[in-house]
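protien #1 (seq + structre)
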Amino acid sequence: MASWRASWPTSERIRFLFRADQGRIDRDVWRRGAVALLAFVAPFVGVWRLLEPYTDHDLAKSPLFAPLTALAYAYVIFFAFVALLVAISFVNLSAKRFRDIGFPAPLGLASLLPLAVFLDAASHWLQMRIAEVMPRWQVYPFDAAAIIVAAWTLYQLGFAPGREK
């Protein structure tokens, strides 16, 4: 029990990793931080996947006020706030690692993955609502871009050597 607490990050360490873009970190710290952010956001994504079908509300088939639809839309506002906070934390964490590797414009490069993921998610959300004018194949380039950016980011930040001691 004591060893678990000893390995738990302090509030100062969490503030350094996720709330500021200054500094440098090695690939092991970046991997642990990225996994922590992923573990934090995963339950929120799971709840959204369960509530997402209720956002398709047709007034011709259901009443004006449907409690599950209201809950789904209230949750999506909360989820968007959480996703933005996680994205900001990821950018701050990744900027430190890009700086350690020696890449120029670490904040810009650190922002690529959240941007690609948000654009991919937006294309999927939009396509379901305007399927008659946006065929399903039009979201595939967004999927491909997000996968390519994720793979590149994972390699560069999680496995490429930096200025590690």
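ok now protien #2
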Amino acid sequence: MHNHNNSATELANRDERTELGEVTESTARPWQVEVGQLLQRAAALCTEHGVEVDAYMSGAWSAYVEARPGLREQLEEAQLRDQLDELRRLGRIGEA
């Protein structure tokens, strides 16, 4: 079971840990602190307006993909490659 009580700042800083494995704001980079604050604000707004978690996560993922030029195409290409590999494995299409 995941602990959903972690703050967004802690999640954004998960790569910045002390030797004891604890996340502290003093070990965070400025952009990580800002990301944590923005995530907290977005989550608060969504919960205040009754947005379901799946819709929130879907919106966050879409925003992330849109912010990374070429990522959507890269993901689509990888998915197509996987589908073709599966069809080849099943013998439904041949290899060239």
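Residues 30 and 36 are 10 Å apart (CA to CA).
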